[in-house]
Amino acid sequence: MAQKRNETFTVTDRRLFTADGELRKDVADEPETVVVPRADTSQQSSPSQSPAAHDSSAPDSVAADSAAPQGPSAAEQKEQADAYKQSSADMDREVERAGRSAKDLEITFERFLASLYMTGMLQLGLMREQDAPPQVDLIGARQTIDSLSLLSEKTKGNLTPVEQNFLQNALYEMRMAYVEVTNAIAKGPQQVPAAK
Q: Is residue 37 classed as helix, strand or coil in its secondary structure?
């Protein structure tokens, strides 16, 4: 297990509102100093050892990222993953006691894609929550479609035929729906001619 040591850092509460939603009047001028135990990062590579730190042709965003704090160590990641597995197993036992199958909670690639598909359709206003008016979020819908497109590109050759077909159908339907919705918005409300 990694050795622990105490480090200090400054926390500044910049929230303008209280938990009740009222404007804060007691905003402190001095930042609050907190001592937090952190894992010893001496085993990790330092930011100066990262390739982006030495590459003068690296984009600014990569150079800025190299100054970011180091992530958790391998030991911390393993400890967290083990804790997550234990917590999930506990939840599965509770679900089984309630008479349901824990298999219903498992995420599959198709369920993940279906979730993105439903999100996109909600964003396009083509689906809605019960008793709620449809709401259109074209930027969100475009990002969801682009996310599916990115998944299609990055998973090429790694999907089963069923997964590939599901992904391509979802992309096709969402792109067509996006075009229809944006065209309808661009045309504006249509005037119905009066009956003679």
A: strand
How long, in residues, is the chain? Answer: 196
Specify whether the CB–CB gap between 134 and 187 falls below 8 A. no
Cα(176)–Cα(167) distance, rounded to whole angstroms? 14
Handedness of CA 49, 82, 112, 130 (dihedral sign): negative
CA atoms within 13 A on the CB side of 29: 0
Distance in angstroms (rounded) separating the CA atoms of residues 35 and 7: 6
Could you give the CA distance from residue 115 to residue 93 in angstroms, rounded to a whole number?
25
Dihedral sign computed on CA atoms, order 85, 90, 91, 95:
positive
pLDDT over 90 for what percent of the chain?
40
* Per-residue pLDDT reduced to its tens digit, 67-120: 778 888 999 999 999 999 999 899 889 889 988 888 888 889 999 999 999 999
